Amino acid sequence: MDPGNNTGISEFQLWGFSEDPELQPLLFGLFLSMYLITVFGNLLIVLAVSSESHLHTPMYFFLANLSFADICFTSTTVPKMLLNIQTQSKVITFVGCITQMYFFMLFTGVDMFLLTVMAYDRFVAICHPLHYMVIMNPWLCGLLVLVCWVLSVFNSLLHTCMVLRLSFCTEVEIPHFFCELNQMIQLACSDTFLNNIVMYFAAMLLAVGPFIGILYSYSKIGSSILRISTAQGKYKAFSTCASHLSVISLFYCTSLGVYLSSAAPQSSHTSTVASVMYTVVTPMLNPFIYSLRNRDIKGALMRFSVMAALKGTIILELKKCP
Length: 322
What we know:
By secondary structure, the chain is mainly α. The protein has eleven helices and three strands; from the N terminus they run βαααβαααβααααα. The protein has helices at 24-51, 58-75, 78-87, 94-127, 132-135, 138-164, 181-187, 193-226, 231-263, 268-293, 295-320; strands at 11-14, 91-93, 173-174. A three-stranded mixed β-sheet has the order 2-1-3. 34% of the residues are buried.
């Protein structure tokens, strides 16, 4: 293949999962179901937190933002994958690929930073309970969320601009079901040394940094819980962190799985399967983790569902009236 500049590339080919025609309906139904569950579950949490006044606290404010980011995160990859399966096409335009890569990195960063902020929120709640509402005031909470978005936007813009300066071959096949940064860099025909340096530096700064912050917060939380004299007090303190710990474990374990599978030789299929866990399964499970372990969320979801059903019934009855 002859190298060409990036303006000469009009489209890429996404390999997807399988070329077997018999598997396409199964894959379409499976991923459509997972996508709808993800959107519906996370949207319910956002609406429940918004509608219930007693959930207007820092912890649930961050949770609502995480749920919104998860909806956007999944929506960057799954709808295009479903469209490709339905139309039996692997094509994605150059602009579409760059756009998908940008938003994928954006919402990945937001997720990562929000999980770190939520760990800090739990640290303040358990280690400084008397000053919790003073420290975690609405202004600080809004500022923390804003910083999460700003950092993610700058990181995504940096990588996107770095990719746009690359030259690609005239026929490009991406061994994945979406446009991922590392795959794009590997497919470039021009020198990618600077891109690799920036990518690994950003990964160390924006992935390892938040992880260290989470570890520090939970080391302080653990030491505070151990100092509690009663078993009931320890259980109550730990239960406030259990859901967040589960989500963090799921997020970082699946991320590590993607990294290890992509680093192994001859691993495009393994990496694709691992990416499904990271991009689809994790956002789908987050609402279940928080709703099953949290009485406030379960109660809010029940009340919201009942109110929505009642409103729907009233509207139907009014429409029947002459």
